[in-house]
Amino acid sequence: MAHDFDLITLGAGSGGVAASRRAALHGAKVAIVEGARVGGTCVLRGCVPKKLLMYAAQLGDGLREARGYGWNVPEAPFEMGRWAAAKAAETTRLEGVYRQLLAGSGVTLIEGWGELAGANRVRVGNRNLSAKHILIATGSAPVRDSLPGIEHCATSDDLLDLPALPARVAVIGSGFIAVEFASMLARLGVPVALYYRAALPLRGFDDMLRKAAAAALQAARVELHPGVLPQRIERLADGLRLVLADDRASDYPWVLNATGRRPNTAGLGLALDDQGAVPVDEQMRTALPGVYAIGDVTNRKNLTPVAIAEGRALADTLFGPTPRTVDFSRVASAVFMLPPLASVGPTEDEALAAGHRLKVFETDFRPMKQAFIGGVERTAMKLLVDADSDRVLAVHMAGADAPEIVQSLAVALTAGATKADFDRTIAVHPTAAEEFVLMREVSRTLPRTALPAAAVPVS
Q: How many angstroms separate the CA atoms of 365 and 374, rounded?
């Protein structure tokens, strides 16, 4: 049977664009369907604008710190409206770049909302298309039903379009989005309260990083409410009311819903798991023959670089000479709060659960830049080393430049570096990164624990 295309991709975010362009590079005839703006969450509503706001907050810190370095810097108010206008111009530019990349690769862009219409078929409005392969790359969206009344709250999409900063803010949640925006808003001068269920923010990260995040938020004067999740949210004439346990209540003019994201699966007609995600196997195949899925819609590793890697691997497998899969065992990640956090490899608990006997190396210090001006910001670092093989299993860091440093060290871990390799590496001085090759004293040795039957060892 002849098809209109070799591949139709639903969703023109980072993963869908990467897969489509790679497939076209292999000679496939490709169409990509998008019902909103080209570029997806990361470019338009997530990673990129979020980090631009982080830079704005960081510059505010820099202006204050400059006085300690001899600069006579006057007070300078932040204007959210000016930032938002510049952000909008930049995301528009980036959307144009993405459109040019698709056109330059020979990918046909079809604008509209696509849905599966049977085997090998996609419907976009009144248009019916067919393809040998169909890729679902529709991403995710903020959860809007996690608590009664939370639909009244703003999401991160709304925050990035604000014309002016709110007078006070409550943030509900403690994941990436909650912690990052609480940190940024506080450093931009907004009083912030953070409400979350757990004892520490950032579930899933190593405890050292979770404690560092809580300390950094408190240092920025964020009001932490661990173990406190609103029972419901009520709309007021001039804001929102968070109704807490025992009918206690707190009123805020603006509340951020950062309780998570959910895969975009409406209209797909695919079987979903209990989290509402599209289940896939190692080759990214869904239960429907010829249909594949990558990125946040699968709810596996919800990070932009992972979606891009999955998309390219799938294109290579379907249209290239060598099939490929993606290794999820050492995916680095970062939290762009101030100071930022970054991590690659398992947490301490995960490494123990996987059956490793651990040597733990840790350090905590005040960086030279902060010490000179009497600042309180600190840097914390941890190496997890397999005590039997000497292989470095994980790197965790909280502090200035953590994402850049951990990204570089992720290469060493992927290559199988040992602690001896770290020890014989000569340091660059004076830097924070040198501490990773200067840690000699074992903080503690942890014995191997029983390996759970369902555990997958971290190699």
A: 13
Host H or E run for residue 219: helix 207-219
Q: Which residue, among 281, 282, 333, 275, has the nearest Cα to 303 in the 3D structure?
A: 333
Q: Contact at 8 Å (CB) between 342 and 332?
A: yes
Class (C level, CATH) for 339-446: alpha beta
Which residue out of 133, 152, 396, 429 is catalytically annotated?
429
pTM of the model: 0.93
Contact yes or no for 340/187 (Cβ under 8 A): no
Say if residues 175 and 202 touch (Cβ distance below 8 Å): yes
Active-site residue, 429 included: yes
Tokens of 156: 């991160």
CATH number for 150-259 (one of 3.40.50.1970, 3.40.640.10, 3.50.50.60, 1.10.150.110): it is 3.50.50.60
45-59 per-position pLDDT tens digit? 999 999 999 999 999
User: Mean pLDDT across the chain, nearest whole number?
Assistant: 94
Sequence-separated (6 or more) residues with CB below 8 Å from residue 133: 6, 7, 8, 290, 291, 292, 318
- State in Å, rounded, how far the first CA of the chain is from the last one: 45
